[in-house]
Amino acid sequence: MSALAQTAGELRHAVEDARGSWSRVAWGLAGAVVLAALLPPLSLPGVRIDSLADTLYLAVAATGLGLTVGAAGLPSLGAGAFVAIGAFTSSLLVARSGWPLEPAVLAGAAAALVAGLISGGIVRLRAAFFAAGTWLIAWLVWLFLLAFPSVSGGSQGLILPQRTLFGLDATPTVHFEVALALLVLTALAIAAVRRAAPGLELSALRQSPRLATSLGVRLGRRRLGAYAASAFVAGLAGALSVQLAAVADPAAYDPFLSFKLLVAVLLGGAAATLGPAAGVAALGLIGLVAHPLARLLQLPLDRFDTAVAAILLVFVLALGGAGIVPWLEPSLRRFRKPPRPRPQVTGSSEEGGVRAVGESVLQAVELRKVFGGVIALDGLSLQLARGETVALVGPNGSGKTTALRLISGAEPPDSGRVLFEGRTLTDEPTPDRVRLGVARTLQATSYFPELTALQSVLVGRSVRRRYGGAIRTALATPNARREALTSEAAALGALALVGLEEVADVPAPELTTSQRRLVALAAGLASEPDLLLVDELAAGAGTEELERIAHVLARIRERGVAVLLVEHSLRLVRLAADRVLVLAAGRPVAEGSVAEVAASDVVRQTYLGTQRL
Amino acid sequence: MTIALQVFVSGLAAGGVYGLFAAGHTLIHRLTGMVNFAFGDLVGLGVFATLIVLSGTAPVTQSGAHEPRFLGALVFGLVICVAAGILTYVGLVQPYLARGSAIGWVAGTAAVAFAIRAVIGATFQRSSYVFPDPLPFHRIGNAGLVRIGGAQVQARAFFVFGLALALALGSAWLLEKSRFGRALRAVADDAEGARVVGIPVDLLIALAFGLVGALAMIAAIAAAPGQAVNANTGTLLGLKGLVAALAVRFGPPLLAFGAGLLLGVFESAIANVHLGSWQLGPSYREVLPIAFVLLLIAVWPSRDALEEHE
Q: Is the domain of A114 the same as that of A226?
C-alpha cells in the first residue's frame, strides 16, 4: 500500500474512533468554545476583553497545573514561579533584545521547561518534600526578581513595546482568541494523555507508588513528564499574558500566584481535565462579587482577593469536596455515550509463543542479607528452570520474603549474586528487572483503590509498551492507538488466564480478597515475564480457592513461565509445586520434591521444634 | 578580621532566630510527616498581635516600651500564636493526615499562611513598622553598639543569640528529660504504637504545633527591634527555617538549630564579604541559600525523603 493510501486509511480510522466517542457533552463543549470565540466582535457592554483574555491565560496555566496536581497527585505550591519565568524571559527578550514576539514566547516557555527539568528531581520525593520544594521554588523566583531589579525592572517593572502576534496587532481581542485556542489545545492534549497509558500510570503511582513501581512503572520518568509539561504550559501562559499586560511587574508574580492557581485547580476539581478552568472561572465570578464588597468595606482590593480565595479553599477542603466538575459529573453522565462493547477474548492466544522448557531461568548464588543485627538470609542458593514451579517455604522470619525482594531488586544483597537467564543482576532497579522479565506480586493487601480489575492489570502492561509516551498519546498517533488496543487485549488475556474476565470492569475495592489476589497475579503476567515471584498468594484462602489458585498456576506453567512461590500454605505447595525448598533462619535446610520434603525429619523439626510432643 | 567578626556576630543573631524556626519545622515533621507552611505566618501573627497591644496600628514613635505593658503584650501575642497554631492543626492538618491526603494539609496550611499575611497587611497598611524595644540596649556602649577587637557589633545581637541558644538547649533538654518530651519522642517514633499505649497523640501534636510557634516567636520578638517588620517578616522567617531544616533532611531539632545558625552566618557572609575585589553582595543574600538547598533535595535526597517504592 502506498504511503498516501496508508495515511488516508489511518486518518479514516482516527475519524471513526473520534466519532465513536463523541458525545453530547463534547457537542456542548464545542458549542461553548465557538460562542466564546465570537464574544469579542459582539462588543457587549461591561465585558472587558482584556481581563477576560487574562483570565483565559490563567486558565491555561491552571489546566497545565492540573496534570501535576490531578493526574500525578503532586501538591505543587510553585506553579506561579514557572509563569514568572516564562513572563520575564520573554519580556527581557522583547524589551531589551528586540526579539519579535513569537520566538520570545517560545523562549519563555522553554526557559520554564528547563527550570522544571532542573528542579524535577523533587518528583521522586514524598509529598511533604515535594511540596516544600515547590514552596522554595515559588519564593526563590520571587525573591530573585525583587533582588535583581536589572532583570525585573525594579518597582516599575519592565515596560513592553507593542508587538505583532502571528502578523496581527497584539490587541486584547487577538490575545483573547489566542488564549482560547491555547486553552482548547492544552485541554485536549491533557485529556488524551490522562485517558491513555501515561494517565493510568500516573494514577497508579498516585494511589500506591509501591505497587506501581513493583509492576515496573517508572516513577521518576512519568512524574517528571507531568511536572515538566505543567511548567512548560505555565511558562507559555506567562509569556503571552505578560505581553497582554504590556508590563512585567514582579509584584504580580509573588508566591500568591502559585497559591491562586492551586486554589483554582482544587476548587474546580483536580480529577477532571476541565476542572482547573472551571476553578478559574469560579474565582473570577467570586472576584466580581468580592471587589464591590471590598470597596464597600474599604479594604485594599488585592488582599481581599487573597483572603476570599483562602477562605473558599478551606471551605471546599473542609467539606471534603473534590471540586466543581466532579460534583457536576453525575448529572452529566446521562449525556455521555455508553462505552463500546469489548471484543470477546478468544482463549489464550499469546505473543511470544512457547519457550523451550528446561532452560535455566534463575540462579541465586549464596545470597546473604543482614538487617541491623538480624541475619535475614544466610547463604541461599537456588535454581529455577523454565516452566518450573518451585516453592520456598519456612516458618515466619525464615527469610522467604527477603529472598524474593533480593531477586526482584527491591533490596541489594550484602553478598551473593542473582543470575537471570545467564545475566548477572547487580543494581538494576525493579522496573528494569520487570522489563527483563522478572515480575513480582506483592502481598494481597496492596491494590489500586480507584482502578478496575482491567485497569490494574493494564498497569502491569506498562513495561511492554513502546508507544505509550505522552507526546504520542497526546497526538493519538496510529501506533499509540493500535498499541492501546493490543495492550487491552493482552490485559484481558491475562485476566482470562486467572479466570476473572467477567469482573474486568469491577472497581478493585468491590472485588473479594481472593479476586484481588488473582488480579495481582494477572498484573504480573501482563508484563509477559519469564519468571514470576509470588508472595504468599494463598494467605487466608479456603480449600476450594486453593484448588482454583493451583489450577491458575498450572496454566501459567503451561505458558513456560517459571514461578517461585513463597508460601505458608503447604496444601497449595503440594498442589502446585514441582520442587520445594525449605528455609529456616535464613538457611536452606531441605530441598526436593514435595513428598521427599514432607517426609523429612529436618522439616518436621523446623516447623514443630525438636521437643517431643 | 573586623568585618569577619561583624558578619559572624550579626549572622549568629539572625541565625539563632532561623534556627528556632528550623527546629520547629523539623519537630513538626518528625511528629507528623508534614510541613507546616503557615509556621512563619503564625509567628508573624503573634508578633503583630503584640505590636497592636503595644502601639496600635500607628507607626511607632517611642523607641522603648514600658516593661509591664510589654510583658502583657508579649503574653497576649504568645497566646494568639499558640491558639492559632493549635486551631490550624486541629482544623486543617489533622483531618487530612488522618485521611492520608497530602494535598489537603498542603493547601490548608498555605491558605492559613496567605490569609494571615492578608489580614496583617490589611490591618497594618504601612510598608514596614518599627518594633518597640523593651530592653534598654540603646544605653549600652554607643547607641547599642560595642567595640570588640576593632569591630562595631550590636549588643542586641549577643542577646538574641544567647536567648535563641538558651531556648534551643532548653527545649532539647525538655524533649529529653520531661514526660511531655518523652511522649513526643514516642509519637515521633511510632504514632500508632503511642496511641495504643494510651498517649493522647492528637492532643500532644496540637500542643507541639502551638508551642514551637511560641518558642520561635520569643526569639523573633527579641530580634525584631533591630529591623523593620511587616507582613512578610514572619513568612520569610518560616521559609528560612524550612530551608535550614531541609538542609539537614529534617534531622534532630538541635541539628536543625545549628543549620539555622549556619544559614544566618552564610547570609551575612554573602552580603558582606569581599574576596579580593569580588563580592557577591546583598542581592544574592537570600536567593543563594534557597537555590542551594532546593538543588540539594532535588539531586541528592535522603533515603526517607524518597517516595516509597519497591
A: yes
